[in-house]
Amino acid sequence: MASCRAGSKLIVPVVLSGGTGSRLWPMSRASFPKQLWSLVSERSMLQETVLRGQSAGFAPPVIVCNEDHRFLIAEQLREVLVEDASIMLEPVGRNSAPAITAAALLVTQTHPDAVLWMMAADADIKKSEALTQAMTKAVQAAEAGRVVTFGMTPTRPETGYGYIEKGAPLPGVDGVFAIKSFREKPAQAVAEEFLKDGNYFWNSGMFVFRADVLLDEMRRYAPEVVESVTAAFEKRKTDLDFIRLDKAAFAQAPDISIDYAIAEKTQVSAVIPADLGWSDVGSWDALWDISPKTADGNVLLGDVLTEDAHGCYIRSEGPLTAVTGVDDVVVVVTADAVLVTHKDRAQDVKKLVDRLKTDGRGEASEHQKNYRPWGFYEGLIRNERFQVKRIVVNPGGKLSLQKHFHRAEHWVVVGGVALVTKGDEEILVREDESVYLPQGCVHRLENPGKIPLTLIEVQSGAYLGEDDIIRLEDSYNRN
């Protein structure tokens, strides 16, 4: 891993990108979660997060992510010229404690005393200068052996965040305090008392610590996490540009956050109160709160028309969305779903997603547009025995060599040029030309050109599920 130092200290940002952001449904879903969307700027939240470390001159980041998102994340890093990042794949989700332990094991191979800056990929920070000042204090405290977190100065009696109660000042670094207690998400009355007290701060979930200190504290308070993750790390494999942890070993790790694993138990914890303009962007009302607004207090994105509407968040990813005569509502329109809720009930969106999952609805986790390492496909029409998709293959992209037991496919090229493997043949298919692939035919699609290849695919057969793909050869090491 490449290194970069701030002063004499190696500082490695560790970005955890494993969440799905279900309260921001229907935009955020498991197939393309909120950290990959451009929600607060022209860049995605992941890109904004990694650029904070790069702009400070820190080491290339370690990204710990769901393996299904690996190519999306790699592409987003390339878009903002973040090079030499280490992308570590979680074979199963096990919360933040196993994830940060794996990252610490990676860093300690070359720099055991490096300072790690752990943060989620989906938070927003508006005040960069205040962050720089807080990080300076945090690194000094971490160098002295502290496990440091940031307490965000509360601006309202928020019930959606956990809180940190500040203790006595710690010697050595001004503005660093012991942690008296961690408090769970409070009821409204308790949150109001916290705000009046002035000694409670929102738990940002960001931590700063030396890698060796983190591992020592994990061995002391959560040895079962270290044991499982160490086994998974030792059996890791390099897969293209990714570090793939062993699935069987990693699955044995407890599903536990760093707060529960060590932060609430360690004797070396510390908090730095700070006003960073921070938001976890965890719900639509939180996103409304931090977004630029019209004179009517509305946040309007996409093809949106309003009349006599105030204090609303309205976003359309496709069709014209017209809203009139309502206040303080959230309206989000995607290709396959529409959400309407009052801002005060924005936290309840997760309940809707849980119901969709219970009902077996694909909209709970999948978008109509599904990204792949070679490009993407988008569902257009689906019926009982046929469906129509738009497929876009990037220049040089190549689908797996595959076959299907239950469906035939008809491809019509509408842009670019396709090189199609059909059995023992290789066929060049140009714009306005087509090719038919019967059921059971071994085939492959690739783009040999310099512009994106776009085609319309018509599938027909008794079963059209994505699991009816037998991959015989794949350039991206997918099973």
Automatic annotation (TrEMBL):
The keyword Oxidoreductase does not apply. Its EC number is 2.7.7.13. Residues 13-295 form the Nucleotidyl transferase domain. Residues 360-474 form the Mannose-6-phosphate isomerase type II C-terminal domain. Pfam families: ManC_GMP_beta-helix, MannoseP_isomer, NTP_transferase. Keywords: GTP-binding, Isomerase, Nucleotide-binding, Nucleotidyltransferase, Transferase. GO terms for molecular function: GTP binding; isomerase activity; mannose-1-phosphate guanylyltransferase (GTP) activity. It catalyses: alpha-D-mannose 1-phosphate + GTP + H(+) = GDP-alpha-D-mannose + diphosphate. GO terms for biological process: GDP-mannose biosynthetic process; polysaccharide biosynthetic process. Residues 305-356 form the MannoseP isomerase/GMP-like beta-helix domain. Belongs to the mannose-6-phosphate isomerase type 2 family. This is mannose-1-phosphate guanylyltransferase.
